[in-house]
């Protein structure tokens, strides 16, 4: 008669992959808690034992049931990551860096894209709750007021806001106000005497741009356009340059928007940077390859991801009423041909 382990070997090799941690422990001659530590990414296991357990798990197609672990109250080794626009290469780069940092600690991530939709954001937060992830890294739509702190509290797991600042919630971000003020000083220093912000007025970039111009006595020369689509933006730019003389400094709230502005100005016959200077935000990979190359605010993506994931892991290991982290990282304006 075949013993238990032999029966399991036959069942597994016949296509049934329902092996458990207990069975892996028996096959590798180690304890079940040791197997659990290895499969959960705990580094405090001897290398030889780790390799033996992982080889066995791989051979028998072990499937880690993260949701079941969460329901049992254990860690799932999953981090939820909620971004606003994954089509923006800045957020794609941020997701990549977060994934890299999470993997170093043995975690995987589940990525959600709100696409600047408040209802979708709330729906994904509900999904995050159901998946019982160990923590959440989020780029919230609204950073002012009490809505987001309340959302974070209801999740009942550690939450770190990244790229933005939310009062009362751990936040790792670029100081958008200071960076945008720097853009205002740069454009004014290049001789532009009218200014246009492309983006939403509740964006802190708008506030910083306005404050920077106010410091120079030029706030009354600033206008703004909220981007809806290319047709609307083209009409707004055409009307703007029909009403005002050239030499306008344009600050777009991200590089994707700045790229659209450059194309539309070319269509309208407005030369860059002679008649209009253009500055973007995020300093994405495409900036140096545009014609003209794009001036943009660079964010320290790698450090931002490292600090945010590190803070989240700290909160997971040290729950409590510690003061919320408010970490503002410095910006760097990368000046190129467009301004």
Major beta-sheet overview: 6 strands, parallel
Helix share of residues? 40-55%
| Count of individual beta strands | 12
* Average pLDDT reading: 86
Query: What proportion of the residues form beta strands (DSSP E)?
Result: 15-25%
Encode the helix/strand succession as letters: HHHHHEHEHEHEEHEHEHEHEEHEE
| Helix and strand composition category | alpha/beta
> Shape from CA axes?
elongated
Over all CA atoms, what is the radius of gyration? 26 Å
Q: What's the helix count?
A: 13
- Enumerate the spans where pLDDT stays under 50 for 5 or more consecutive residues: 1-17
Short descriptors:
about 350 residues, alpha/beta, 6-stranded mixed sheet, 12 strands, about 45% helix
């Amino acid at each position: 008669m075949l013993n238990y382990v032999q029966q399991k070997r036959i069942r597994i090799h016949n296509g049934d992959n329902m092996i458990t941690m207990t069975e892996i422990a028996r096959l590798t001659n180690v304890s079940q808690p040791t197997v659990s530590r290895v499969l959960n990414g705990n580094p405090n296991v001897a290398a030889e034992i780790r390799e033996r357990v992982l080889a066995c798990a791989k051979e028998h197609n072990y499937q880690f049931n993260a949701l079941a672990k969460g329901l049992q109250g254990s860690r799932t080794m999953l981090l939820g990551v909620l971004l606003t626009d994954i089509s923006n290469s800045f957020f794609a780069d941020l997701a990549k860096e977060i994934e890299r940092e999470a993997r170093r600690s043995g975690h995987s991530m589940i990525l959600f894209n709100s696409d600047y939709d408040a209802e979708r954001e709330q729906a994904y937060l509900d999904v995050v709750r159901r998946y019982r992830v160990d923590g959440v890294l989020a780029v919230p739509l609204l950073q002012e007021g009490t809505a987001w702190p309340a959302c974070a509290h209801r999740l009942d797991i550690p939450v770190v806001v990244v790229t933005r600042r939310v009062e009362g919630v751990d936040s790792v971000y670029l100081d958008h106000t200071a960076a945008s003020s720097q853009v205002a000083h740069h454009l004014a220093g290049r001789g532009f005497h009218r200014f246009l912000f492309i983006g939403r007025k509740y964006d802190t970039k708008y506030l910083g741009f306005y404050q920077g111009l106010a410091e120079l006595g030029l706030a009354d020369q600033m206008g703004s356009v909220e981007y809806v689509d290319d047709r609307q933006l083209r009409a707004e730019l055409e009307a703007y340059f029909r009403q005002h003389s050239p030499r306008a400094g344009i600050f777009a709230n991200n590089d994707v928007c700045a790229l659209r502005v450059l194309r539309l100005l070319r269509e309208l016959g407005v030369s860059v940077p002679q008649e209009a200077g253009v500055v973007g935000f995020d300093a994405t990979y495409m900036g140096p390859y545009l014609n003209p190359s794009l001036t943009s605010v660079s964010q320290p993506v790698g450090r931002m991801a490292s600090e945010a994931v590190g803070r989240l892991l700290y909160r997971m290991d040290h729950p409590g009423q510690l003061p919320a982290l408010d970490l503002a990282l410095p910006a760097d304006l990368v000046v190129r041909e467009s301004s």
